[in-house]
Amino acid sequence: MKNILNAPFVEEMKKTTANMYRLGWDERNGGNISYLLDESEVAEYLDLTHVVRTIPTGFDTAALIGKIFIVTGTGKYFKNVESDPANNLGIIRIGEDGTTAELLWGYEDGSRFTSELPAHLMSHMARLAVDPENRVVMHCHPTHTLAMNYVHELNEKKFTHTLWEMCTECIVVFPDGVGVLPWMLCGTNSIGEATAEKMKEFRLVIWGMHGIYGAGKTMDETFGLIETVEKAAQIYMLTAHLPRINTIKDKELVELAEFFEVEYRKDFLNL
């Protein structure tokens, strides 16, 4: 059996968490990632009949029974994942009862998955129903995106429109726009349900005064979605207090979307 520490999915988690910490998106133990894995690939590294222990999920995950995820741990610092993945990451399989997670590897210090697991797994369920190829859900606290929450209306159409105006690539990268939730208590089933509902139509969901959720087919795609929002938010925060002399016009946003053949939210434009 191959060494789990050399598995490509472990390497992806190590590199991505290190990069997110370096960018200041995941201070202390802020942020979490879950990554849906292919069972046959995991079987090259782990004995799938060996369950280390079971951990209650605290909600109904019947739609994901048998699915395997690698998930960042609760209270874990992203800066430590690269040097100590076995303590900071865990590989779990949703049990046959639909309410427990079977730990197959990781969390060696006795810890467990992120407290935001409800939001993650509910988001996976919502995105898989829309896109069967979805694999990653990522949550972080990008600085300028968070700052923008305090000075911009938390309205999906207006927030998305402003971001689209900031960078030429935005409407191409996230043509489906950005969902927005008001401030809610984190770590609860309620915020998980609200996020999942938004994930039915958006791959990006802002948690008001908290951070952002992104979903995608790959780690790169998901990271890139959040990275593009953050760049646009940074430009907004650098210019919001200044007179705007130039902007990308709505007719130009349409031109971009049609040239790159993306399905965009026409109702988010003022045409």
CATH architecture of the largest domain: 3-Layer(aba) Sandwich
Measured between the Cα atoms of the first and last residue, the distance is 59 Å
Please give the CATH class of the largest domain. Answer: Alpha Beta
Lateral arrangement of strands in the main beta sheet = 2-5-4-3-1-6-9-8-7
Give the low-confidence spans.
none
Question: What's the arrangement of secondary structure elements?
Answer:
Blueprint: H1 8-22, E1 32-37, H2 39-42, E2 53-56, E3 68-72, H3 85-88, E4 89-94, E5 100-106, H4 117-130, E6 136-140, H5 143-149, H6 156-166, H7 170-173, E7 179-181, H8 189-199, E8 204-207, E9 211-216, H9 219-239, H10 250-259
Structural account:
This protein folds into 2 domains: 115 residues, Class II aldolase/adducin N-terminal domain (L-fuculose-1-phosphate Aldolase); 138 residues, 3-Layer(aba) Sandwich (L-fuculose-1-phosphate Aldolase), CATH 3.40.225. Strands 2-5-4-3-1-6-9-8-7 form a 9-stranded mixed sheet, with helices on both faces. It contains 10 helices and 9 strands. It is α+β, with helices and mostly antiparallel strands. The protein is elongated. A hairpin with a 5-residue loop joins strand 4 and strand 5. Helix 6 crosses helix 9.
